[in-house]
Design a protein that fits this description.
Helices cover 55% and strands 6% of the residues. By secondary structure, it is mainly α. β1, α1 and β2 form a beta-alpha-beta unit. It binds adenosine-5'-triphosphate and magnesium ion.
C-alpha cells in the first residue's frame, strides 16, 4: 500500500497568532492544504501543552483557543480540507505520551536545545513543571497519533522533530513497525525561519510581547512598525546604516516582493538597491519603515477582514472545532489500537492470547 502523505502541526493558545507564526508555518500550511498533494491535514490547538507553563492561568488558555481558531480561519485554513481540533479533547494523546516516556531518558530531554532555551526564557531555573520538561514527548505523541509524514514549523521546532524521530525508531525497533517517522518542513526563506520580535530580540513570541498580531488594527500595525528596532548607531540620515540585526530589513527580507517597489517605493528598482543605499548612508529609517508598513498592511488587511467576518458567528467556529475533534479522535483511536497491540497490552481483543493461556494452564 502506498504510504499516505499526512500533514500535522499546531500552535499553543497562549495568545493571538502573530506574523512570526504566519511566515514560519501558517502560510505554508495553507499552501500545502490547497496543493492537493497531501492525503490529510491535521491542525491542532495545543491547549494541554499551553497549560504546562500556564497551569495557574486556565482562563488565558481557554480564551485563546477561540482566538487561534479565528486566526486559522482568517489566514485560509479550511475545515473542509483540514481537520482542526483541540489537543485536550483527544485523551489518546495522553496515553501515548505515557508509553513514550519509557523510551526517552532524562538526560536526553535535558540536552534538548528547545527545552533549554524555553526554560531560560521562562526563568524556571530548577522549578520546572515536569509536564513542561517532558513536552517533547507529548509532541511526539501528537505527531505520531496521526501518522504525520510532514510537519511544517519554524526553526525552533527542529530539535522537537528530531526527538520524535528518535522515539519512533526506538518504538518500532522494540515493538515492530508501527509508527511513522515525520519530516520537518522549514520555510524556504531564511528570514522566516525565526522571525525576530519588533524589539530586535531573537524571536517574535507571544510570551515576550514583541509581536505584530494578525488581528492588530491598521493603526496598531502602523505604530509597531514605526517604533521597530533598527540600527542604534544610525542616528542621522547621512550616517551609514547596518543591515545585520536590523529588524526592519529582516522583515523586508521576509515580506517584500519585487512588485511592492512599483506600488510603494518607485525610486528604487529592488531590495538590493534599497539595502545598498542604506548601507552607504543617506537613507532615513522612517522612509524604510513607511515602505515596510505599506507592505504589512497589504498582507494583513485581507486577513483582518476575513477574521471580522468569522467573528460574526462564534458558535459556528466552536461547532467546526467539535467536528474536528471527532474526526481527529477516530484517527488517534485507530493508531492507539495498533500501539496497544504492538506493546502487547491488548488483553481482550486477542483470542490467541486466551487460547495460549488455556494451554499453559493445562485446561485443554
Ligand atoms: P509561546 O511563546 O507560547 O511558546 P510562540 O509564539 O513561540 O508561543 P508557538 O505556539 O510555540 O508560538 O509556535 C507555533 C508555531 O509557530 C511553531 O511552528 C513555531 O515554530 C512557529 N513560530 C513561532 N514563532 C515563530 C517565529 N518568530 N518565527 C518563525 N516561526 C515561528
Ligand atoms: Mg513557542
Amino acid at each position: 500500500m502506498k504510504k499516505e502523505k499526512i500533514i500535522l502541526t499546531g500552535d499553543r493558545p497562549t495568545g493571538r497568532l502573530h506574523i512570526g507564526h504566519y511566515v514560519g508555518s501558517l502560510k505554508r500550511r495553507v499552501e500545502l492544504q490547497n496543493s492537493g498533494l497531501y492525503d490529510k491535514t491535521f491542525i491542532f490547538i495545543a491547549d494541554a501543552q499551553a497549560l504546562t507553563d500556564n497551569i495557574e492561568n486556565p482562563e488565558k488558555v481557554r480564551q485563546n483557543v477561540i482566538e487561534v481558531a479565528l486566526d486559522y480561519m482568517a489566514v485560509g485554513l479550511d475545515p473542509m480540507k483540514s481537520t482542526i481540533f483541540i489537543q485536550s479533547q483527544i485523551p489518546e494523546l495522553c496515553e501515548l505520551t505515557f508509553y513514550y516516556m519509557d523510551l526517552v531518558t532524562v538526560s536526553r530531554l535535558q540536552r534538548n536545545p528547545t527545552v533549554k532555551t524555553e526554560i531560560q526564557m521562562r526563568n524556571f531555573e530548577t522549578s520546572i513543571p515536569v509536564g513542561f520538561f517532558t513536552y517533547p514527548i507529548s509532541q511526539a505523541a501528537d505527531i505520531t497519533a496521526f501518522k504525520a509524514t510532514t510537519v511544517p514549523v519554524g526553526e525552533d521546532q527542529e530539535p522537537m522533530i528530531e526527538q520524535t524521530r528518535e522515539i519512533v525508531r526506538r518504538f518500532n525497533h522494540i515493538y515492530g513497525d508501527t509508527l511513522v517517522e515525520p519530516e520537518i518542513l522549514l520555510p524556504d526563506n531564511a528570514a522566516c525561519l525565526r522571525l525576530p520580535g519588533t524589539d530586535g530580540k531573537a524571536k517574535m513570541s507571544k510570551s515576550l510581547g514583541n509581536c505584530i498580531y494578525l488581528s492588530d488594527t491598521a493603526d496598531e500595525v502602523e505604530k509597531k512598525v514605526k517604533s521597530m528596532y533598527t540600527d542604534p548607531t544610525h542616528l542621522k540620515v547621512s550616517d551609514p546604516g547596518k543591515l545585520e540585526g536590523n529588524t526592519v530589513f529582516t522583515y523586508l527580507d521576509a515580506f517584500c516582493k519585487p512588485e511592492h517597489f512599483g506600488r510603494y517605493l518607485p525610486d528604487y528598482p529592488d531590495l538590493n538597491e534599497l539595502k545598498a543605499h542604506y548601507t552607504r548612508g543617506g537613507l532615513g529609517d522612517m522612509k524604510v519603515k513607511k515602505f515596510l508598513a505599506a507592505i504589512m498592511q497589504e498582507e494583513l488587511t485581507p486577513i483582518r477582514e476575513r477574521r471580522k467576518e468569522f467573528e460574526k458567528d462564534i458558535p459556528a467556529i466552536y461547532e467546526m472545532l467539535r467536528k474536528g475533534c471527532e474526526t481527529a479522535r477516530a484517527t488517534a483511536t485507530a493508531t492507539l489500537d495498533e500501539v496497544r497491540k504492538a506493546m502487547k497490552i491488548n488483553y481482550f481483543d486477542d483470542a490467541e492470547l486466551i487460547a495460549e493461556q488455556v494451554k499453559r494452564f493445562g485446561q485443554e
